[in-house]
């Protein structure tokens, strides 16, 4: 049951982050991609929580995340959420790297 829940949470996280990662603001002439930063921070936090929940929780979360990203790209008409510019590629590669890091990090052993 936990595995299925983590897959669903991963898919939901990907869908919400894909919508949010394009948001930005201009402050003092500099464009700040706050949506991208928020998406990456949220992904890191959720994958760490999933890894604490179960031993391979980050991997199950990553499975749902990757399935949703694939579904977005293979949808009829293509996806307009994750573009192939630097923001979209940073979102996809950065989130994937954070998920792999969270899934492979050394588990804490309590004595």
TrEMBL record:
Keywords: Membrane, Transmembrane, Transmembrane helix. The keyword Transmembrane helix applies. The chain crosses the membrane at residues 32-50, 57-74, 86-104. It comes from the Bacteria. This is FtsH-binding integral membrane protein.
């Amino acid at each position: 049951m936990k595995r299925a829940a983590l897959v669903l949470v991963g898919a939901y996280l990907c869908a919400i982050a894909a919508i949010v990662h394009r948001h930005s603001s201009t402050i003092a002439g500099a464009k700040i991609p706050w949506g991208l930063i928020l998406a990456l921070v949220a992904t890191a936090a959720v994958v760490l929580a999933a890894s604490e929940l179960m031993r391979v929780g980050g991997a199950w979360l990553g499975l749902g995340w990757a399935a949703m990203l694939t579904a977005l790209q293979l949808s009829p008409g293509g996806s307009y959420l994750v573009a192939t510019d630097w923001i979209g590629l940073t979102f996809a590669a950065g989130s994937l790297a954070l998920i792999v890091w969270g899934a492979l990090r050394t588990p804490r052993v309590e004595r």
